[in-house]
Design a protein that fits this description.
This protein has about 140 residues and is an alpha/beta fold. It has one domain: Nucleotidyltransferase, domain 5 (2-Layer Sandwich). About 35% of the residues lie in helices and about 20% in strands. It has a 6-stranded mixed beta sheet. It is globular and about 50 Å long.
Amino acid sequence: MSGFICGVWLGRRGRGLVAVVVDEDGRAHAPLVLDRHPDAAWELLDWLDASVGLDWELVLPDWLARQSPLCSFALERGNSVWLVPPAILDAVRIVANLATGPPARTAAALARLPLAHALRPCLRRLDPPERNQLPLF
């Protein structure tokens, strides 16, 4: 586990994304709202590098990792990504009563999932590819 974890969830009415950074003690930072286009995804990753350093991981729902370039961008930059399967996500949202709250609460809950030792085996972790060779282009 790295020092900081960023959870990302859909904003109100699905128009944007909400990102919340959580430290290793589970304390959430102020939420960041961004658009859903690739430039905004790259800007979020730049902001994470600048504000919390290079030692961070991303947590996304499975379906959001397929719809957004955040996952592939983070892996390209050398950061790990945790994917939350729909069954775990639904269970956490019901138990924590997150369906009616602000999107930032759900993003913070996502970021805290890898910190829970009991839930960590249920998540899928993607590590960046090994870069032992220089790319040809």
